[in-house]
Fold each of these.
Amino acid sequence: MNIILLGAPGAGKGTQASKIAQHYGILHISTGDIFRANIKGGTEIGKLAKSYMDAGKLVPDEVTCDIVKDRLTWADVKSGYMLDGFPRNLYQAKELDKFAKIDLCLNIDVDEALLMDRICGRRICACGESYHVSTLNGATTCAKCGKELYQRADDNPETVKTRLDTYKTQTAPLIDYYKAQGKLASVTSGEGSPDEVFEQIVKILGK
Ligand code: AP5
Ligand code: MG
Ligand code: ZN
């Protein structure tokens, strides 16, 4: 099964993707993670992406679409994948339709008032795990691997405001795009705990 995870910044796409990957064994592909890995590796793509990400804007479509198109040629996608953070506008969605067959778009809907706190309180680990300061009890290292936690460069109030605007103007219209294709499934109470949200997803995807 090939799934798109849609939702505003901080909606919980990454959090739920890791639960889905664990439970169903579906491969998780996040364009944000790919860009962050490129920034860390100092590649040309990383240098380009950084300026857009730091500003809360979308990395140019041609670059992003090429990365995903290439990623979907790898052998590990054969038994299904989840796209987290792609597509992010109508152009990307239409391009994706040319090189992939999507079965379902899972839209995680969360009250906007919660997003700023969720994002600015997020701490992440190089292993991919993410946390929120409210549940860390002062811990500064990853419970999974022991590495030091850090904050994403774009997780500051100013950039988050732009990311939310970018979401509203460019990404939210995709809800109607996938509804029209009969592929939309909505998680309507994304405000619940991560486990509660995941329960809803299991109802949609089945055991
Ligand atoms: P990307 O990395 O995709 O970031 P994003 O869309 O802004 O989303 P986030 O990762 O911030 O949120 P999330 O929904 O994954 O939430 P999470 O689960 O971590 O993109 C970053 C940038 O890369 C973009 O701005 C753009 O520049 C570029 N980019 C990426 N893809 C692109 C594309 N296709 N085209 C062009 N540019 C692209 O949760 C957030 C926090 O909340 C965590 O602290 C978590 O612990 C907590 N939390 C999660 N769920 C719950 C819950 N149920 N209850 C309480 N707390 C929760
Ligand atoms: Mg994410
Ligand atoms: Zn870790």
Amino acid sequence: MGPVALVREVTDSFTRCVTRRPAVPPLDPKRARHQHLRYRSALEMGGFEVRVVPGDEAHPDGCFIEDAAVVVGEAALIARPGHPSRLGESGPVADALSELVDIHTLDHGALDGGDVLQVGTTVFVGVGGRTDAAGAAGLEAFCGGMRRRPVRVPVESALHLKSGVTALDESSVLWHPDSCDRAVFAGLRVVAVESDDPEAANVVRLPDGRILLGAAHHRVADQLAGLGYGVVACDTSEFARADGGLTCLSIRLRHLPSQSLRR
Ligand code: CIR
């Protein structure tokens, strides 16, 4: 089957999302839902089949579904979110993933999917923010069975590794200078965004090869177009107010078996 993206409904409790700074005015679930629909459409137009996981009012941050699991090839590792209020989000996500891939579960430590960046066969894991050494070790053990090379990356100021660096293709990353040490990406092409645009490097690679980026980041759109990438913009500003970017709103499964027996 083709590429699938899982997204999760925005709940009324979205007003109570974890935020690094108080949200003023309060977070707006209606506006977030509107933006979420546009985001889903952009994923579909780019070649994903979108599946929607029901929301749970008990978990305001559940729509940031990326943090709940890491999919590598045809297996998923159910994560253990690093913020205590987010523990317990993963049940319905695991149910949805179990229709598509094999399920493994991290049994200790802290790991957020937003800290895991896959580029080709390398799996970078950001450690120091929401993900700790035990969570990274669990991911490394999981990767070992999947013929992937895990690489730990210290994360200091960003919420997640992918807040400031994401993949453009199988050998290129889009990187913000404050996100992490550029040297960890030796051997890959590193495209740097302007240092005054910290959220600009969080983009989603669509199955059709285009790059989905935040609507406010015009300079990056021009930069990527100049490098030959097709770009498509999406406004997720209400989610940005809750510290979420484009990647965190979906779990993307790119390489599913041609015939899924689990459907
Ligand atoms: C949180 O603080 O956990 C949420 N409000 C935002 C999570 C964003 N996730 C991500 O960037 N992967």
